[in-house]
Specification:
By secondary structure, the chain is an alpha/beta fold. The chain is built from 16 helices and 21 strands. It has two domains: 366 residues, TIM Barrel (Alpha-Beta Barrel); 51 residues, Oligo-1,6-glucosidase, domain 2. Helix 1 packs across helix 15 and helix 13 runs parallel beside helix 15. The chain starts with a helix and ends with a strand.
């Protein structure tokens, strides 16, 4: 067995660079490994089993061991809900998570560990308990009335108030939509961004960008253009990624906003490209992977793509692939890791955590050790299923899902061509084998992906002579003369 740990140790020596805006830029936001965290469920630091910033700070060495360059924190602000996407105060910390001082200590420690931090920025709506909305509903003469969208008659997406008026709240009645056309609302948003960016936060994940102006893509893009410009005027190097839950073709259009990146939803979930490639009913899996690589390059190749396997809104990827064996969990990570752009890993996916059904089930407490040290699951959880061992147990198993993730993310650091290089799918002698050449600044690598139950051999294309790295499940890759062998469900990199 080749030494996965060697890759891990080598990657520890690499230093992450600053964010970038364009695919051809030398800066490394294009090659970043990001990690999504629901703070409530991640790591407890005060003994109440609820995740907090003290616990998160304590887990920074763990994030470093995953070769994470940055973390996305789901909303951290005071909120009446467990998920906190209904914000009551944009410039405060929810007491469940600690104090502002706790957050600042975490932020400083994260930066010391070369880990950037972005926050969820939810500006499509507020909580109905936000002081702005409380003032708006109390009086039609309140200046905050214009912060929201009111109507004297019923409309689709509007809810009634006791006074006979209606307010827009397209998600749920407890999340009234902001009037983003109001200059005062935009000024508030700008000050919110300024507050966090000047504190040292490294950017934002933008929630629900297609819902800003429901059914009006042009206005959504225009607002994003304004928001991106306002953020970059405060901090030019901040990184912004948007939730555009739509087709590749629509996602492509949203890049006209100037926003750094958008999540590639068609890659993710049980209905996404990766899950479909790994599905048992899919033939010619290598050929299918090549088609996906070509499609992504054609539609988003000029931009910074953000692929992922799943997040807090989707069933865990293991639920889509089946939890009877870790092989598919590893291969899903492997296929994600060879894609261009910045990738996002949802906390717990690296140990094969499950979660499907209602939202709390998708945000289970992190399983840290075999003594059932599990951070508290959020209220409303109906099924808490952990099909694979804890972090502690997997750390001691070289071929665990966890160590596979570590090796995969380390390879992205070791070979910048993976995330930045222009991909070319080469002709393959077997439909289960995908050969991808990536060229970045004239430096080429060949990525060979075997999606078969059999070991596969092929003649190395001209110029490639050595095995440079691999992700193994069932065996080792080899080079013998001009012939390469990639084991079953193996991924090998050649130079």
């Amino acid at each position: 067995m080749r030494k996965i740990l060697a890759f891990l140790l080598a990657a520890c020596l690499l230093v992450s660079a600053a964010p970038a805006l364009a695919l051809n830029n030398d800066d490394a936001a294009l090659a970043d490994n990001w990690y999504e965290i629901f703070v409530y469920s991640f790591a407890d630091g005060n003994g109440d089993r609820i995740g907090d910033f003290v616990g998160l700070k304590e887990k920074l060495p763990y994030l470093q061991s995953l070769h994470v360059d940055g973390v996305w924190l789901m909303p951290i602000h005071p909120s009446p809900s467990y998920h906190k996407y209904d914000v009551m105060d944009y410039c405060a910390i929810d007491p469940q998570y600690g104090t502002m001082e706790d957050f600042q200590a975490f932020l400083e420690a994260a930066h010391d560990a070369d880990i950037r931090v972005i926050l969820d920025l939810v500006v499509n709506h507020t909580s109905s308990e936000h002081p702005w909305f409380q003032a708006a509903r109390a009086s039609a003469d309140s200046p905050y009335r214009a912060y929201y969208n009111f109507s004297d008659t019923p409309k689709t997406g509007y809810n009634a108030l006791p006074d006979g008026t209606y307010f827009e709240s397209r998600f749920v009645s407890t999340m009234p939509d902001l009037n983003l056309d109001n200059p005062q609302v935009r000024a508030e948003i700008e000050e919110i961004m300024r507050f966090w960016l000047e504190m040292g936060v490294d950017g934002f994940r933008l929630d629900a960008v297609t819902s800003y102006y429901t059914g009006n893509k042009e206005k959504n893009i225009s607002f994003l253009r304004w928001l991106n410009g306002a953020a970059k005027a405060i901090r030019p190097d901040c990184f912004i990624v948007g939730e555009c839950w739509d087709s590749l073709y629509t996602i492509h259009d949203y890049y006209a906003s100037g926003v750094d990146s958008f999540f590639a939803f068609p890659v993710a979930q049980g209905s996404g490209y990766i899950a479909k490639i790994l599905g048992n009913d899919v033939e010619k899996k290598g050929e299918s992977l090549g088609n996906v690589i070509n499609l992504l390059q054609r539609e988003l190749g000029e931009y910074v793509m953000t692929p992922f396997l799943g997040n807090h809104d989707t069933p865990r990827i293991i639920n889509s692939l089946g939890a009877s064996s870790p092989t598919n969990a590893k291969m899903a990570c492997g296929l994600l890791s060879i894609l261009n752009g910045s990738i996002f890993v949802y906390y717990g996916d690296e140990i094969g955590m499950a979660g499907t059904g209602n939202d709390p089930n998708k945000r289970l407490g992190m399983f840290w050790d075999k003594k059932m040290n599990i951070t508290r699951c959020p209220p409303g959880t109906t099924v808490a299923d952990y099909p694979f061992p804890s972090v502690q147990e997997q750390e001691g198993t070289p071929l665990s899902i966890l160590n596979y993730y570590r090796a995969a993310l380390a390879l992205r650091h070791q070979f910048p061509q993976i995330a930045r290089g222009t991909p070319t799918v080469l002709e393959s002698p077997d439909a289960s084998l995908c050969l991808i050449e990536k060229d970045w600044q004239g430096d080429r690598i060949l990525i060979a992906v075997n999606l078969s139950i059999d070991d596969l051999s092929f003649p190395l294309p001209g110029g490639y002579t050595q095995l440079a790295g691999e992700l193994e499940i069932w065996g080792e890759a080899e080079v013998n003369g001009g012939e390469a062998l990639v084991p079953s469900y193996g991924i090998a990199i050649f130079q």
